[in-house]
Design brief:
The protein contains no helices and eleven strands. The protein is an all-beta fold. The N and C termini lie far apart (40 Å).
């Protein structure tokens, strides 16, 4: 069983930055890709960013490319999402998720690929 706990959300103004963290339990964190998704009120959950198990590959949604950076620290069992130049349309609950494939060869953006999810952290960006 894996537990994922997100933190770092909050209320900020447009143009500000936030860093989200996702702490994972278990001893096999370094063997799995991780991802961030988000869900705004009345909208479907959408992919934000993903990082391979080694950290060597990353993948971003077009809407956040150049503004958000995903990273991981396998020694701390933690994945991060640095969010810069935040926009009101970034307002959502942000979830981290663990890939279901151990040592996967590809980084996936489909939510179906991920088998464990955190409880989410709210990010609100005011204009």
């Amino acid at each position: 069983q894996v537990q994922l706990v997100e933190s770092g959300g909050g209320l900020v103004q447009a143009g500000d930055s936030l860093r989200l963290s996702c702490a994972a339990s278990g001893r096999t964190f370094s063997m799995y890709a991780m991802a961030w998704f988000r869900q705004a009120p009345g909208k479907e959950r959408e992919f934000v960013a993903a990082i391979s198990w080694s950290g060597s590959s990353t993948y971003y949604a077009d809407s956040v490319k150049g503004r958000f950076t995903i990273s991981r620290d396998n020694a701390k069992n933690t994945v991060y999402l640095q969010m810069n130049s935040l926009k009101p349309e970034d307002t959502a609950v942000y979830y981290c998720a663990k890939d279901s494939s151990r040592l996967g060869l590809r980084v996936e953006k489909s939510a179906r690929q991920y088998d464990y999810w955190g409880q989410g952290t709210q990010v609100t960006v005011s204009s």
